[in-house]
Specification:
The model has no long low-confidence stretch (mean pLDDT 93). The longest helix is centred in the first third of the chain and has 41 residues. α1 runs antiparallel to α2. It is built from 2 helices and no strands. Helices cover 89% and strands 0% of the residues. By secondary structure, the protein is an all-alpha fold.
């Protein structure tokens, strides 16, 4: 494989990993549960079950985002120059 193509693939996987980590870890597992907690608390419909689920999602958000980023970085490492 050509050196330029390998470099483009490595950068693409790195950017893809960062975007996916921010989307899933940052938005789906952090921002949405926090927003849900706020809106349900203000509406008075917050239950203990939903509170527990949202707390678990918030605590696991960085782990999931980091895991996604690491997997994509490992794949990008296969295409980086030695």
């Amino acid at each position: 494989m050509k050196k330029t193509l390998r470099r483009v693939l490595a950068i693409s996987f790195s950017v893809l990993g960062t975007v996916l980590a921010l989307y899933f870890g940052g938005y789906w597992l952090f921002i949405r549960p926090v927003r849900y907690l706020y809106t349900s608390l203000m509406a008075g419909t917050l239950t203990s079950k939903h509170l527990l689920i949202c707390i678990v999602k918030i605590f696991l958000a960085s782990t999931a985002g980091g895991g996604i980023w690491v997997i994509c970085d490992i794949i990008a490492g296969k295409f980086r120059d030695k």
